[in-house]
Amino acid sequence: MRGVFITGTDTGVGKTVVAAAALRYLGGHVRAAPMKPVQTGAVRAAGRLRAPDLDVCLEAAGLAPGEEELRLMNPYAYEPACSPHLAGRLSGRHPQISHIVECARSLLSDYEALVVEGAGGVLVPLDESHTMLDLMKAMGMPVVLVARAGLGTINHCLLSLEALRCAGLEALGVLFNRTAHGAEDFISRDNPAAVAQFGRVPVLGEIGYEPGLAGGRAESWRRLDEAFWGLPRILEAIREDD
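RESULT FIELD:
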């Protein structure tokens, strides 16, 4: 499938912000749509569950899809903020990879590319027998790995990269995100080079803490775009699928 899959080393590492930035950039070159196949921690509004991660991407890209497209962009939404397999078990309706793939194909009949944001990390359980990695394999897109900048991220990155490569997926690179104010230290400054060396992977960016993104501040988005210097690499990978 034509597009890019945004995954992370963990939950809360900034996948949504990275997906939104990628969508904003790609939108200037191809007709791109966001997709959040599985949203836990969904919010009930106007009689339906909305995916807050998807809403961030839509707002950032200036997109306003109708209800039918929204269901394709977010086929599975659950209120409990937990792993997809547990949310599915509690609701009695697990995410189905085949249905997610069908929704993605439907979107690609109207869009040139997708920016797909996973849930949690690479090996988070999707149902009782599949993980997020199985979904990534089914979609077959190149992958961007988002990681925290600080202590512990080297191990998490290298294990995630190993899992992606063993599954036959292309890792476009790793993007480091400072998820809290004051995260800058000598460890955070060295981690990208260490991951690039031991993981044999490009570093796509080093994003500073940007609290203004939640309020849609243009200056914060500009700084994020500058820190995400690997955006052209994502576009190149998508164009190679032509």
